[in-house]
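Let us work through a complete example step by step.
Step 1: write down the sequence.
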Amino acid sequence: MLPLIGGLVVGAPTGERLAARVGYRVPVSAGLAVLAAGVGVGAATDVASGYGFVAAWLAIAGLGIGMALAPAMDAVLDALPTEQAGSGTAITMTLRQTGGALGVALLGSLLAEGYTGRVDTAGLPAAAAAAARESIAGALTAAARIGEPSLAVRNAAYLHGMSLVLIATAVTAGVSALLTGWLLPGEPSPDSEEGRQSPEATSVPDNDAR
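Step 2: predict the structure and record it as tokens.
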């Protein structure tokens, strides 16, 4: 996973610099598009793929996440008055954690379904078959235990499940990039900047009005 982290390290400051120059819409949309491209390429991973290929698409995906995440957080905070920044940050972090948990649950279920639907346990002892259906780790452990190297072909079933997950992620990121490009404001509006003033400051009557 180090290539993914490396992409994040490069992408985050890149996204912030772009946001400072051209506003939020461009880096967030571009980052999501890069993420979609990275995981879309990753969906083509097969049992013959080397780590170089996997590292490349992981790095691309990390770059996209980094480009999108920091400007997206800044856009949320810039849309709020200063006195609401703390609650806005808390809500945003809660939504991120909730989204992460839902993503793990939904995509994990998709992976499990894809793997289970493809794994072949014909002719295996009952215990080995049960372990193979449970997970790829169980299949490989059973292969080593019973001396049945052919169980390792269950890697192909696992890759099928992972491909489904990556395709779903690519589609979601691609649609999000389009929606972000359409709906996300480029920069804070003058109204939002005025909203950052304290209520006390804006409620003081003008001397001329008196």
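Step 3: interpret the result. The chain is about 75% helix and 0% strand.
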